[in-house]
Design brief:
single chain, seven-stranded mixed beta sheet, four-stranded antiparallel beta sheet
Length: about 120
């Protein structure tokens, strides 16, 4: 089983920045994708940003130009730099990792989340 531990959440004012980190436990499986999702109060979980093992990234339209996802593959870590934060970014942010399939083992893992609160 892979464990994911997020950190970096907190309370900030609109316009400020935060950097989230997620460290995954070491694995011998290929990591295909590392991503951040978020769940805002009363809303469905949504993909915020993802980075794939070929280096490509994708972002939710609402965060393009403000958030940047990056990874340190050697240390199984993914980051989310969040700039120009808005109150609507308030949510619990969850780390997600997809690994190569293996019989009888999950290929998707989730962190427990880190809370981000942005006040106006």
């Amino acid at each position: 089983q892979m464990r994911l531990v997020e950190s970096g959440g907190g309370m900030v004012q609109a316009g400020e920045s935060l950097r989230l980190s997620c460290v995954a436990s070491a694995t011998d499986r290929t990591i295909n994708t590392m991503a951040w999702h978020r769940r805002a109060p009363g809303k469905e979980r949504e993909l915020v940003a993802a980075i794939h093992n070929d280096g490509t990234t994708n972002y939710a339209d609402s965060v393009k130009g403000r958030f940047t996802i990056s990874s340190d593959n050697a240390n199984y870590t993914v980051y989310l730099q969040m700039d120009s934060l808005r109150p609507e970014d308030t949510a619990v942010y969850h780390c997600y990792v997809q690994v190569s399939p293996r019989p009888y083992s999950p290929s998707e893992y989730w962190g427990r989340g880190t809370r981000v609160t942005v006040s106006s």
